[in-house]
Write a structure and sequence with these properties.
Organism: Paucibacter sediminis
Order of helices and strands: HHHEHEHEHEE
Number of domains: 2
Protein name: Smr/MutS family protein
CATH architecture of the largest domain: 2-Layer Sandwich
Shape: elongated
CATH topology of the largest domain: Ribosomal Protein S8, Chain: A, domain 1
Number of strands: 5
InterPro entries: Smr_dom, Smr_dom_sf
Helix content: 40-55%
Strand content: 5-15%
Radius of gyration: 35 Å
Domain Smr: 112-193
Number of helices: 6
Strand order of the largest sheet: 1-4-5-3-2
Amino acid sequence: MLRRREAEERAERAAAAARLREQEQRLFELSIGAVTRLPDAQRVLLRADPPEPEPRQRQLDEQAVLRQALSDDFDVDSLLETDEALSFRRVELGPETVRKLRRGHWALQGQIDLHGLRRDQAREALGAFVHESARRGLRCVRVVHGKGHGSPGREPVLKSRVRRWLVQKQEVLAFVQARASDGGAGALMVLLGQP
């Protein structure tokens, strides 16, 4: 009995839906009037193949990686002027910027210590630190690369590399060797700007 009732209800719903479609079709025909089909002109409709999608985000990501990439083989001396006190400034900045940075004109807002890191680890950590510091709006940070006392031959491994890496970062406006109280020959004071 229950199955029969369900079948009747389904049949009623289907009949109601068919009546509604028929009413809508009549209403449409009354609204627009008689319709005449256009003659078939034996045309072939060609569909243009859609263009290949451009991986724009991947291209942007690759460009960002190239901007972020730091090279050990980058020759600082060929492109930028550095002095014997290990200072650097972008050409658009005046020499007073280096003097102010050396004198501690800007308050130290952050630092990274690269002691004990291998070269690749230090490069990645420095790149991420500079990028994040600039993104957060930090103006002056310290990069501690060490004096090399714990390195084989007591030669600083990271000191010259850090200098090369920093000049490749767009966010870095200038840097100077830190004052003795801030780490001396084992650290750099870095002035950052927005990339």
